[in-house]
Design goal:
Blueprint lengths: L5 E7 L2 E9 L11 E2 L4 E2 L20 E6 L2 E5 L1 H6 L2 H5 E9 L8 E9 L4 H14 L1 E9 L2 E10 L2 E7 L25 H13 L12 H15 L25 H16 L5 H7 L7
Parallel strand pairs: 1-7
Antiparallel strand pairs: 1-2, 2-8, 3-4, 5-6, 7-9, 8-11, 9-10, 10-11
Helix pairs in contact: 4-6
Length: about 290
């Protein structure tokens, strides 16, 4: 059973629903260990006193805020909660908005909300009401020691709490040198625009996340297994010559020709008997030239 990282109340109006918050992310990072290359012993993240250079035990570590140079205000776990007890134990939905109106830039991390025993009826009522209206509940929640903006949305049998970024956490587009939408000014012809639109529509399909996989992690694991099988254990490999990356300097690009070739390739690919991935699995692996 998953462990809740937050337990509290989610309220809208006078309705209070006791819920637990569970991570919706599955661990997918390679668990790599830092090693001393001299004897391949694991190297931990040492807790060292910067003044004495000596290791500090966990029991002797506290959290502090530097109020003035060299002057710290020490905070305990109780202090984090007592600063605003209500904020740490309850999320009030402040407004309901159309989910489609939320700018994707604000999305940060998803969590599952699961009802506690006394909150199942109200949980289902909120979930189905959000589903029927197409709305998302917007509020603020304190997770661990930080407050977040959040959206509550329905997903199948669950309610999802989507942690959002606050507006001041985003950089403004005005800081970047971005071209405007004047196609003519940029030298984009009506033919190029039409072919680009056709290519996008030809490639359009329903979003199926299970169709995609982490190719890089898969291939990295294959490399690790290959090295282990070859006996390359407890050895530091010599640095191989770095492959030269393709040059990315300014070049004159025939955009129309590339679009025409892409559209044509898409049409041919639609009639192929097997996808490139399936063919790659069926044929023997060929080394790159």
């Amino acid at each position: 059973m998953a462990r809740a990282i937050w337990n509290g109340l989610v309220g809208f109006g006078l309705v209070q629903i006791p819920m637990g918050l569970y991570s919706a992310e599955a661990p997918n990072e390679l668990d790599l260990t830092l090693l001393d290359k001299r004897d391949f012993s694991p190297v931990g993240y040492e807790r060292v006193n910067k003044k004495t250079g000596k290791e500090v035990k966990w029991d002797d570590i506290v959290k502090g805020y530097e109020h003035k140079q060299g002057k710290f205000v020490v905070l305990t776990d109780n202090d984090f909660e007592e600063a605003n007890v209500e904020a740490t134990r309850q999320m009030d939905i402040l407004a309901f908005v159309d989910f489609s109106e939320i700018d994707p830039r604000y999305f940060d991390r998803p969590y599952y909300l699961a009802p506690q025993k006394a909150g199942k009826k109200a949980y289902v009522l909120l979930r189905e009401t959000l589903r029927k209206t197409g709305k998302a509940g917007i509020g603020k929640v304190v997770i661990r020691t930080r407050q977040h903006l959040a959206a509550v949305i329905p997903h199948e049998k669950a309610l999802i709490l989507m942690v959002l970024r606050f507006a001041d956490e985003l950089r403004q587009e005005s800081e970047l040198d971005l071209p405007d939408g004047n196609l003519k000014k940029l030298g984009i012809s009506p033919k190029e625009a039409a072919m680009a639109e056709k290519l996008v529509l030809d490639m359009a399909e329903s979003f199926k996340p299970e169709k995609y996989e982490d190719d890089y992690r898969r291939d990295l694991m294959k490399l690790i297994q290959k090295k282990a099988k070859a006996g390359e254990v407890n050895t530091v490999p010599e640095r191989a010559a770095k492959k030269r990356r393709a040059e990315t300097g300014a070049k004159v690009i025939d955009l129309a020709a590339l679009l025409a070739e892409s559209v044509g390739g898409k049409k041919r690919g639609a009639h192929a008997k097997a996808t490139p991935r399936k063919r790659a699995r069926a044929e023997p692996h060929r080394k790159s030239a």
